[in-house]
Amino acid sequence: MMPDPVLHPCRRTLLRLSLGLLALPQIARAEPLRLVTLFQGATDSAVALGVTPCGIVDSWSEKPMYRYLRAAVQGVPHVGLETQPSLEDIALLRPDLIVASRFRHQRIAPLLEQMGKVVMLDEVFEFKRTLALMGAALGRQPQAMELLAQWRQRLEQLRAQLQARFAGRWPLTVAVLDIREDHIRSYLPASFAGSVLSELGFAWTPAAREARGVSLKLTSKESLPVVNADLFFVFQRTDSPAAQRHYQNLVRHPLWQQLQAPRDGLVWRVDSVAWSLSGGILGANLMLDEIARAAAT
Known about the structure:
Radius of gyration: 21 Å
Distance between the termini: 52 Å
CATH architecture of the largest domain: 3-Layer(aba) Sandwich
């Protein structure tokens, strides 16, 4: 008897998602579904699937909606904040489907279920699962699977580019640093950006691998050695002069200058929306765009 074939890890992931989606009921109707998205990654995923929601929540920055999504959702009504959506506004939109976050919206789930079918996601940044579940619920599973296949292909191409760029040093260890007004937030492998970097094949320092949660908060420059790595991805809010000043002071500090990435000139500035706030397949692809551009220089 021939042994069972060994599936590539990415194909195993797709297979698990597909099997889980078989049990997810779809809404059958001739006209387009009226969709309300209650977190950023759901709005991103809807646009990626070619669906224009009838209601969305405000973005975290670049309000009222991230620039990369504005053209696709121009004129779509807003239903408040991700953390506090307006139930009255949602009800007035008469949605068929509401995509929500268990962490954000579990408390109001019974009320949402009275307005339409609810798909509740456990994690807002698990963008591949969000895409697959929404594809199934919207009757666009083939499109979701194609987007995931394209994602896998892009990862393979970019990984080869990085391996060629860094040769014997690959895989590099990385740190993702959000420079805020009064502290530094270092994102871990479990974060949105961290999951993408791990898929690309980047490595993590022991401190990052052993830490729990999605980020570490560094409140003093003396903590900088904790994030020492071969390559830094750095961003901050462009609308915050205080964060800009903090970064300028930081790069002049002797402890910063002694870290591996600054010493080697491997501090890559990236966009905060794509890396921290987008939470969807389109945002993840923007991350790959920025990495590819930086690796080509």
